[in-house]
Write a structure and sequence with these properties.
CATH architecture: 3-Layer(aba) Sandwich
Oligomer: single chain
Keywords: Methyltransferase, S-adenosyl-L-methionine, Transferase
Organism: Hyaloscypha bicolor E
Bound molecules: S-adenosylmethionine
Shape: globular
Number of helices: 4
Radius of gyration: 14 Å
InterPro entries: COMT-like, COMT_C, SAM-dependent_MTases_sf
Structural class: alpha/beta
Strand order of the largest sheet: 3-2-1-4
GO molecular function: O-methyltransferase activity
Order of helices and strands: HEHEHEEH
CATH superfamily: Vaccinia Virus protein VP39
Protein name: S-adenosyl-L-methionine-dependent methyltransferase
């Protein structure tokens, strides 16, 4: 699976270092439907201690309740159903990996529309 869908190298997370450090009140990454947090643990290897930013791992209770916090240093496991509004506001990144492929396009739109109101403005 990792060979077919690598975690690292798909997005330059480390380039967000200055932005994350400049705005520490903003969560760094929300891993939506993040499973057991493997992707966040991999990303931490190129973003040490997540540059001081919060990282939230969201999934259903059956997944979140199975996790041990000591296995996920610096990561906050949180129950969230993607069919409800995203509760974590203004994060730098909303990360959806191996999630949307499980749903038909209209359902994907519903999932994405639940995230849009949480997103902050982007200034370049
Ligand atoms: C294929 S796994 C991908 C996990 C992780 N993103 C990864 O790349 O390894 C899909 C995940 O979506 C979660 N999921 C499915 N329906 C969900 C829902 N309604 N709300 C939140 N998470 C959901 C599953 O529990 C599962 O952990």
């Amino acid at each position: 699976m990792e060979a077919n869908m690598p975690i690292l190298g798909m997005f330059p997370f480390a380039t967000l270092k200055d932005q994350v450090e400049k705005e520490p009140e903003r969560p760094f990454i929300v891993d939506v439907g993040g499973g057991k947090g493997q992707a966040m643990l991999a990303i931490e290897t190129e973003c040490p201690k997540f540059f001081g930013g919060n990282v939230i791992l969201e999934d259903l209770p059956i997944v979140i309740d199975s996790l041990k916090s000591e296995d996920l240093p610096g990561i906050e496991p949180t129950v969230h159903d993607i069919f409800t509004l995203q509760p974590v506001k203004n994060a730098h990144v909303y990360f959806l990996r191996r999630l949307l492929h499980d749903f038909y396009n209209p359902v994907c739109l519903e999932i994405l529309k639940n995230i849009v109101p949480a997103m902050g403005s982007v200034f370049f």
